[in-house]
């Protein structure tokens, strides 16, 4: 019985140590950097490359819940139809932790500098999953 307990604890420790790797952290931060650059270039479609291309994607904002990649992209295009409304985006990452081997959680702040239409800022939480070897946002709650 003792051997079984030790073996289970060993597996737990090994699995837990694989939950967070420097490469995974760098990959997620690189995606957020790329999204910032794409947004600031006025390219909403490229910005969306960080999101899961699935009908199961969820985006929670001040107007409610949006389900699906296409609907989320459509909402972005409607709310930010041009470069002036998009402005310049800056993310400040407040927390990045790995809940499991292929699950990450990010909390951050966004700032939009928009001289013509007024600045905007708020906070976000992102649930990430590593699917087919690629980190993607599966749920975004921004307010």
From TrEMBL:
Gene3D superfamilies: 3.10.450.50. It holds the Pfam family DUF4440. Keywords: Signal. Coiled coil: none annotated. Residues 28-137 form the DUF4440 domain. Residues 1-19 form the signal peptide. This is Nuclear transport factor 2 family protein.
């Amino acid at each position: 019985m003792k051997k079984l307990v030790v073996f289970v604890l060993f597996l737990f420790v090994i699995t837990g140590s694989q939950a967070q790797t420097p490469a995974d952290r760098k990959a997620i931060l690189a995606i957020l950097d790329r999204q910032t650059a794409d947004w600031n270039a006025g390219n909403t479609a490229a910005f969306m490359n960080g999101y899961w291309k699935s009908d199961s994607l969820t985006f929670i904002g001040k107007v409610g819940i949006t389900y699906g990649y296409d609907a989320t992209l459509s909402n972005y295009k409607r709310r930010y139809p041009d470069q002036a409304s998009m402005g310049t985006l800056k993310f400040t990452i407040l927390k990045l932790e790995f809940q499991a081997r292929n699950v990450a959680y990010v909390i951050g702040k966004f700032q939009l500098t928009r001289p013509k239409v007024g600045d905007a800022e708020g906070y976000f939480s992102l649930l990430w999953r590593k699917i087919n070897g690629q980190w993607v946002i599966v749920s975004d709650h921004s307010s």
